[in-house]
Amino acid sequence: MADGCRKSACRRRLCAVVVVASLLAVIGTLQGLLGRFLCIIALLALTGCFSTNPARHAPSIGKRSHHVVIRYVRANDTLYSIGKKFGVDYRLIAKRNHIRYPYRIYVGQRLYINRAAPGRHDATAEKIRRVSIPHRSVRKNSAHHRSSHRRVHKKGVRKLPHLAKARGYKGRLRWPVKGVVTSKFGPRGSRMHDGIDIGAREGTPVHAAASGVVVYADSRLSGYGKLIIIRHAGNLFTAYGHNSRMLVRKGAHVRAGEVISRVGHTGRATGPHLHFEVRRGSTPVNPLAYLPR
Predict the structure, then answer these.
(1) Contact 284/111 with Cβ under 8 angstroms?
(2) pLDDT digits (tens, 9 = 90+) for 88-113
(3) Most Cβ neighbours (<10 Å): which of 15, 91, 173, 227?
(4) If you count DSSP H runs as helices and E runs as strands, how many of each does the chain have, helices first?
(5) In 10 A of CB 61, how many CB atoms?
(6) Rounded to an integer, what distance in angstroms lies between the CA atom of residue 108 and that of residue 196?
(7) How is the chain split among helix, strand and coil, in percent rounded to 5?
(8) Within its chain, how far is the Cα of 209 from the centroid?
């Protein structure tokens, strides 16, 4: 294809040279304003002959590209509609993002479109997985899921999972602390930032974003410092990191707006701020999609 473009460019240059030479001969024979006018019109018409750049096409994510395409799930998105928008099969998007059947996606979730999501150790996700499913009910729930799946399939009313809309959250979370967002959710250098950082003074009160139960209050997860994780209704979790003091313990029931800790810079932190995460199950989502604006 590159050879064809070069040959086409050479033909255009040759065409331009021949025509310009002809025009110079005409200028020598024609006199007065009429001759000059005709020459100018002919030169303007030939400006297209000097374009030697091949046509530029819009980038297609179907081709190999070093540019990473990321989609943050919005309300009313489905896995199928996202795949259709980018021209990628929804099953491939699910595979690249480690999304298993029945292909549940959540508002604010980060999806890699043209490459596999980078594999990485997520200590927070592992901690949430441990507290999300009671071990005693795993087998019972699995058996119930299989039997109900068979019943629905026989009736022929099963909704296609890839057409299910992205799940949001009933209601709104509260801002955990007053301050300025200093780092947003998403890529940050060569790493992914699974939450937002909110700058605030050391010791500023941190409030629970919604009512729930404290499932973790410790400093054993690397990098987070003193960390609190709260489980809310709808399998929603919020995490509060780098605290200077923790004012609640594991198992405590907290109300929305209740003070649970104080801002600090424990763990990997360059200054006092709150690292705030929102997760649907163990999946990190953009907190700004759940907080009031």
Answers:
(1) no
(2) 999 999 999 999 888 889 999 999 99
(3) 227
(4) 6, 14
(5) 15
(6) 13
(7) 35, 25, 40
(8) 23
CA nearest to 161, candidates 81, 84, 78, 88: 78
Quote the tokens at residue 146: 């299989």
pLDDT at 23: 56
CATH superfamily, domain 64-119+158-168, is: LysM domain (3.10.350.10)
Distances (CA, A) of 53 to 5, 8, 12, 48: 8, 10, 11, 11
Write the pLDDT tens digit of every residue in 116-126. Answer: 888 766 777 77
CATH superfamily of 180-289: Glucose Permease (Domain IIA) (2.70.70.10)
The pLDDT of residue 194: 92
Fold match, 64-119+158-168 / 180-289: no
How many Å separate Cα 240 from the centre of its chain?
21
The DSSP 8-state label assigned to residue 233 in this structure reads G
pTM flag (> 0.70): no
What digits encode the pLDDT tens for the residues 162-178?
Answer: 677 776 666 679 999 99
CB 204 within 8 A of CB 240: no
Distance, CA of 105 to CA of 165 (rounded, Å): 8
Q: Degrees (nearest 5) of the Cα angle 119, 182, 202? A: 110
Q: Where are the domains of the chain?
A: 2-50, 64-119+158-168, 180-289
